[in-house]
Protein backbone atom coordinates (compact mmCIF):
# COMPACT_ATOMS: atom_id res chain seq x y z
CA UNK A 1 0.00 0.00 0.00
CA UNK A 2 2.91 2.32 0.70
CA UNK A 3 4.01 2.45 -2.94
CA UNK A 4 0.50 3.33 -4.11
CA UNK A 5 0.07 6.01 -1.48
CA UNK A 6 3.53 7.38 -2.21
CA UNK A 7 2.63 7.65 -5.90
CA UNK A 8 -0.63 9.40 -4.98
CA UNK A 9 1.30 11.84 -2.79
CA UNK A 10 3.59 12.73 -5.68
CA UNK A 11 0.60 13.25 -7.97
CA UNK A 12 -1.13 15.46 -5.41
CA UNK A 13 1.98 17.58 -4.99
CA UNK A 14 2.21 18.09 -8.74
CA UNK A 15 -1.35 19.35 -8.99
CA UNK A 16 -3.91 19.15 -6.15
CA UNK A 17 -6.53 20.71 -8.40
CA UNK A 18 -5.64 18.29 -11.18
CA UNK A 19 -6.68 15.37 -8.99
CA UNK A 20 -10.22 16.69 -9.01
CA UNK A 21 -10.30 17.89 -12.60
CA UNK A 22 -8.98 14.51 -13.80
CA UNK A 23 -12.56 13.29 -14.00
CA UNK A 24 -13.37 11.16 -10.97
CA UNK A 25 -12.88 13.37 -7.92
CA UNK A 26 -11.45 12.09 -4.65
CA UNK A 27 -12.87 8.59 -4.97
CA UNK A 28 -10.77 7.96 -8.08
CA UNK A 29 -7.38 9.20 -6.93
CA UNK A 30 -6.09 6.01 -5.33
CA UNK A 31 -7.09 3.35 -7.81
CA UNK A 32 -9.02 2.76 -10.98
CA UNK A 33 -11.00 0.10 -9.11
CA UNK A 34 -13.87 1.05 -6.85
CA UNK A 35 -12.92 1.06 -3.18
CA UNK A 36 -15.09 0.52 -0.14
CA UNK A 37 -15.61 3.50 2.14
CA UNK A 38 -13.49 1.78 4.79
CA UNK A 39 -10.61 1.30 2.33
CA UNK A 40 -10.84 4.89 1.12
CA UNK A 41 -10.75 6.16 4.70
CA UNK A 42 -7.77 3.96 5.53
CA UNK A 43 -5.90 5.16 2.46
CA UNK A 44 -6.68 8.75 3.30
CA UNK A 45 -5.38 8.35 6.85
CA UNK A 46 -2.24 6.66 5.50
CA UNK A 47 -1.67 9.54 3.12
CA UNK A 48 -2.08 12.10 5.90
CA UNK A 49 0.47 10.18 8.01
CA UNK A 50 2.94 10.22 5.13
CA UNK A 51 2.30 13.93 4.63
CA UNK A 52 3.18 14.61 8.26
CA UNK A 53 6.35 12.54 7.92
CA UNK A 54 7.36 14.27 4.68
CA UNK A 55 6.79 17.67 6.23
CA UNK A 56 9.12 16.68 9.08
CA UNK A 57 11.80 15.81 6.52
CA UNK A 58 11.32 19.11 4.72
CA UNK A 59 10.05 17.41 1.54
CA UNK A 60 6.61 19.03 1.89
CA UNK A 61 5.96 22.52 3.19
CA UNK A 62 3.02 23.44 5.42
CA UNK A 63 1.09 25.15 2.60
CA UNK A 64 1.35 22.08 0.36
CA UNK A 65 0.32 19.76 3.18
CA UNK A 66 -2.72 21.82 4.14
CA UNK A 67 -3.80 22.15 0.50
CA UNK A 68 -3.64 18.39 -0.01
CA UNK A 69 -5.63 17.80 3.17
CA UNK A 70 -8.26 20.17 1.83
CA UNK A 71 -8.44 18.17 -1.42
CA UNK A 72 -8.96 14.97 0.57
CA UNK A 73 -11.83 16.59 2.45
CA UNK A 74 -13.72 17.72 -0.66
CA UNK A 75 -15.70 14.53 -1.20
CA UNK A 76 -16.98 14.72 2.39
CA UNK A 77 -18.09 18.34 2.12
CA UNK A 78 -21.63 19.03 0.92
CA UNK A 79 -22.93 22.04 -0.98
CA UNK A 80 -24.95 23.40 1.95
CA UNK A 81 -21.77 23.60 4.06
CA UNK A 82 -20.03 26.17 1.85
CA UNK A 83 -22.87 27.88 -0.03
CA UNK A 84 -23.72 31.55 0.31
CA UNK A 85 -27.22 31.33 1.88
CA UNK A 86 -30.22 32.79 0.06
CA UNK A 87 -30.57 35.56 2.65
CA UNK A 88 -27.16 36.89 1.53
CA UNK A 89 -27.69 36.44 -2.21
CA UNK A 90 -28.49 39.37 -4.49
CA UNK A 91 -30.98 38.31 -7.18
CA UNK A 92 -33.24 40.20 -9.57
CA UNK A 93 -36.86 39.74 -10.62
CA UNK A 94 -37.27 39.38 -14.38
CA UNK A 95 -40.51 41.38 -14.10
CA UNK A 96 -38.77 44.50 -12.70
CA UNK A 97 -37.88 47.45 -14.91
CA UNK A 98 -34.69 46.58 -16.83
CA UNK A 99 -33.16 50.01 -16.13
CA UNK A 100 -33.64 49.50 -12.39
CA UNK A 101 -32.10 46.05 -12.63
CA UNK A 102 -29.04 47.38 -14.44
CA UNK A 103 -28.62 50.20 -11.92
CA UNK A 104 -28.76 47.73 -9.02
CA UNK A 105 -26.25 45.34 -10.60
CA UNK A 106 -23.80 48.15 -11.38
CA UNK A 107 -24.19 49.67 -7.92
CA UNK A 108 -23.62 46.35 -6.15
CA UNK A 109 -20.75 45.40 -8.51
CA UNK A 110 -21.86 41.80 -8.96
CA UNK A 111 -20.54 40.07 -12.07
CA UNK A 112 -23.12 37.27 -12.14
CA UNK A 113 -26.64 37.54 -10.75
CA UNK A 114 -29.41 34.95 -10.40
CA UNK A 115 -32.66 35.91 -12.12
CA UNK A 116 -36.02 34.77 -10.76
CA UNK A 117 -39.64 35.11 -11.87
CA UNK A 118 -42.24 36.22 -9.30
CA UNK A 119 -40.63 34.29 -6.44
CA UNK A 120 -36.96 33.75 -5.55
CA UNK A 121 -37.61 30.00 -5.32
CA UNK A 122 -38.24 30.13 -9.07
CA UNK A 123 -34.75 30.86 -10.44
CA UNK A 124 -34.91 30.93 -14.24
CA UNK A 125 -31.39 31.99 -15.20
CA UNK A 126 -28.14 33.80 -14.42
CA UNK A 127 -27.19 37.07 -16.09
CA UNK A 128 -23.56 38.17 -16.57
CA UNK A 129 -22.79 41.86 -16.38
CA UNK A 130 -20.54 41.68 -19.45
CA UNK A 131 -23.53 40.51 -21.52
CA UNK A 132 -25.56 43.45 -20.17
CA UNK A 133 -22.81 45.89 -21.13
CA UNK A 134 -22.61 44.35 -24.60
CA UNK A 135 -26.33 45.00 -25.10
CA UNK A 136 -26.09 48.51 -23.64
CA UNK A 137 -23.44 49.45 -26.20
CA UNK A 138 -25.88 48.57 -28.95
CA UNK A 139 -28.26 51.37 -28.05
CA UNK A 140 -31.62 51.57 -26.30
CA UNK A 141 -31.38 50.13 -22.78
CA UNK A 142 -35.18 49.77 -22.56
CA UNK A 143 -35.02 47.23 -25.39
CA UNK A 144 -32.67 44.87 -23.55
CA UNK A 145 -34.26 41.45 -23.19
CA UNK A 146 -32.89 39.71 -20.10
CA UNK A 147 -34.42 36.40 -21.15
CA UNK A 148 -32.39 36.55 -24.31
CA UNK A 149 -29.00 37.07 -22.67
CA UNK A 150 -29.22 35.15 -19.40
CA UNK A 151 -27.64 31.72 -19.10
CA UNK A 152 -29.39 28.52 -18.10
CA UNK A 153 -29.11 27.95 -14.33
CA UNK A 154 -27.01 25.07 -13.07
CA UNK A 155 -28.86 23.49 -10.13
CA UNK A 156 -27.31 21.25 -7.49
CA UNK A 157 -28.85 19.61 -4.43
CA UNK A 158 -27.65 20.91 -1.08
CA UNK A 159 -26.28 17.46 -0.16
CA UNK A 160 -24.24 17.01 -3.34
CA UNK A 161 -20.50 16.68 -2.65
CA UNK A 162 -18.45 19.65 -3.74
CA UNK A 163 -15.84 17.60 -5.60
CA UNK A 164 -18.64 16.46 -7.96
CA UNK A 165 -19.86 20.05 -8.28
CA UNK A 166 -16.34 21.22 -9.12
CA UNK A 167 -16.06 18.63 -11.89
CA UNK A 168 -19.45 19.49 -13.37
CA UNK A 169 -18.80 23.24 -13.28
CA UNK A 170 -15.54 22.70 -15.13
CA UNK A 171 -17.21 20.46 -17.69
CA UNK A 172 -20.11 22.86 -18.24
CA UNK A 173 -17.89 25.96 -18.11
CA UNK A 174 -20.16 27.59 -15.56
CA UNK A 175 -19.09 29.83 -12.68
CA UNK A 176 -22.16 29.67 -10.46
CA UNK A 177 -24.24 26.82 -9.06
CA UNK A 178 -27.75 27.37 -7.64
CA UNK A 179 -28.30 25.19 -4.57
CA UNK A 180 -31.78 23.77 -3.96
CA UNK A 181 -33.24 21.98 -0.94
CA UNK A 182 -35.24 18.77 -0.75
CA UNK A 183 -38.45 20.63 -1.60
CA UNK A 184 -36.98 22.28 -4.69
CA UNK A 185 -36.68 25.66 -2.99
CA UNK A 186 -33.71 27.97 -3.50
CA UNK A 187 -31.11 27.58 -0.71
CA UNK A 188 -28.14 29.60 -1.93
CA UNK A 189 -25.30 29.79 -4.43
CA UNK A 190 -21.79 28.41 -4.88
CA UNK A 191 -19.25 30.11 -7.14
CA UNK A 192 -16.16 28.54 -8.68
CA UNK A 193 -14.16 30.83 -6.41
CA UNK A 194 -15.83 29.30 -3.35
CA UNK A 195 -14.70 25.85 -4.49
CA UNK A 196 -11.13 26.91 -5.19
CA UNK A 197 -10.97 28.58 -1.78
CA UNK A 198 -11.86 25.26 -0.18
CA UNK A 199 -8.50 24.03 -1.49
CA UNK A 200 -6.12 26.98 -1.42
CA UNK A 201 -7.79 29.07 1.30
CA UNK A 202 -9.43 32.49 1.08
CA UNK A 203 -8.76 34.45 -2.09
CA UNK A 204 -8.63 38.20 -1.56
CA UNK A 205 -10.22 40.22 -4.33
CA UNK A 206 -10.85 43.96 -4.28
CA UNK A 207 -14.01 43.31 -6.28
CA UNK A 208 -15.05 40.20 -4.35
CA UNK A 209 -18.72 39.53 -5.12
CA UNK A 210 -19.59 38.52 -1.57
CA UNK A 211 -16.94 40.00 0.68
CA UNK A 212 -17.05 38.80 4.27
CA UNK A 213 -14.83 39.15 7.33
CA UNK A 214 -12.89 36.23 8.80
CA UNK A 215 -15.67 33.90 10.08
CA UNK A 216 -13.72 32.90 13.20
CA UNK A 217 -11.46 35.54 14.75
CA UNK A 218 -9.43 34.96 17.88
CA UNK A 219 -9.76 37.81 20.38
CA UNK A 220 -7.89 36.27 23.30
CA UNK A 221 -6.57 32.89 24.39
CA UNK A 222 -10.04 31.46 25.04
CA UNK A 223 -12.41 33.89 23.30
CA UNK A 224 -13.38 34.01 19.62
CA UNK A 225 -15.62 36.29 17.57
CA UNK A 226 -17.64 34.15 15.17
CA UNK A 227 -19.92 34.97 12.25
CA UNK A 228 -23.40 33.61 12.97
CA UNK A 229 -23.54 31.85 9.58
CA UNK A 230 -20.46 29.76 10.32
CA UNK A 231 -21.28 26.06 10.39
CA UNK A 232 -21.19 24.37 13.78
CA UNK A 233 -19.00 21.60 12.35
CA UNK A 234 -16.39 24.18 11.28
CA UNK A 235 -16.43 25.77 14.76
CA UNK A 236 -16.10 22.36 16.39
CA UNK A 237 -13.19 21.40 14.16
CA UNK A 238 -11.25 24.65 14.44
CA UNK A 239 -11.75 25.16 18.17
CA UNK A 240 -11.64 21.45 19.03
CA UNK A 241 -14.97 21.50 20.87
CA UNK A 242 -18.18 19.46 20.62
CA UNK A 243 -21.20 21.71 20.17
CA UNK A 244 -24.37 19.78 19.15
CA UNK A 245 -24.97 19.47 15.41
CA UNK A 246 -28.14 17.35 15.38
CA UNK A 247 -30.64 20.22 15.13
CA UNK A 248 -28.95 23.36 13.78
CA UNK A 249 -26.45 23.90 10.96
CA UNK A 250 -24.99 27.28 11.95
CA UNK A 251 -23.55 28.60 15.19
CA UNK A 252 -26.01 31.51 15.16
CA UNK A 253 -28.89 29.10 14.65
CA UNK A 254 -27.74 27.04 17.61
CA UNK A 255 -27.76 30.04 19.95
CA UNK A 256 -31.06 31.31 18.53
CA UNK A 257 -32.69 27.91 18.99
CA UNK A 258 -31.47 27.71 22.58
CA UNK A 259 -32.62 31.22 23.49
CA UNK A 260 -35.92 30.76 21.68
CA UNK A 261 -35.82 34.22 20.15
CA UNK A 262 -33.52 36.91 18.79
CA UNK A 263 -32.27 38.74 21.89
CA UNK A 264 -32.71 42.49 22.32
CA UNK A 265 -29.16 43.62 23.09
CA UNK A 266 -30.36 46.99 24.33
CA UNK A 267 -32.37 45.44 27.17
CA UNK A 268 -30.32 45.36 30.36
CA UNK A 269 -31.72 42.09 31.70
CA UNK A 270 -32.09 40.34 28.34
CA UNK A 271 -30.65 36.83 28.13
CA UNK A 272 -28.02 36.86 25.39
CA UNK A 273 -25.92 33.80 26.15
CA UNK A 274 -26.13 30.03 26.51
CA UNK A 275 -23.80 27.36 27.89
CA UNK A 276 -22.86 24.01 26.38
CA UNK A 277 -20.66 22.19 28.89
CA UNK A 278 -17.45 24.26 28.98
CA UNK A 279 -18.43 26.52 26.07
CA UNK A 280 -20.36 29.80 26.29
CA UNK A 281 -22.08 31.39 23.28
CA UNK A 282 -23.00 35.08 23.57
CA UNK A 283 -24.79 37.23 20.97
CA UNK A 284 -23.09 40.58 20.32
CA UNK A 285 -24.72 41.64 17.04
CA UNK A 286 -28.22 40.82 15.80
CA UNK A 287 -30.64 41.80 13.05
CA UNK A 288 -34.40 41.39 12.79
CA UNK A 289 -33.94 37.93 11.30
CA UNK A 290 -30.85 36.32 12.82
CA UNK A 291 -27.91 36.45 15.20
CA UNK A 292 -25.18 37.95 13.04
CA UNK A 293 -22.14 37.78 15.34
CA UNK A 294 -21.43 36.05 18.61
CA UNK A 295 -18.62 35.33 21.04
CA UNK A 296 -17.49 31.80 21.73
CA UNK A 297 -15.81 31.55 25.11
CA UNK A 298 -13.94 28.42 26.13
CA UNK A 299 -13.25 27.34 29.68
CA UNK A 300 -9.49 27.71 30.35
CA UNK A 301 -7.77 24.35 30.61
CA UNK A 302 -6.44 23.53 34.05
CA UNK A 303 -3.17 21.75 34.70
CA UNK A 304 -5.08 18.50 35.25
CA UNK A 305 -6.75 18.79 31.82
CA UNK A 306 -3.45 18.94 29.97
From TrEMBL:
Keyword Phosphoprotein: no
GO cellular component, one term: plasma membrane
Domain CBS: 83-143, 149-209
Record keyword Repeat present: yes
Pfam families: CBS, CorC_HlyC
Keywords: CBS domain, Repeat
InterPro entries: CBS_dom, CBS_dom_sf, FAD-bd_PCMH-like_sf, FAD-bd_PCMH_sub2, Ion_transp-like_CBS, Transptr-assoc_dom
GO MF annotation, one: flavin adenine dinucleotide binding
Protein name from the UniProt record: Putative hemolysin
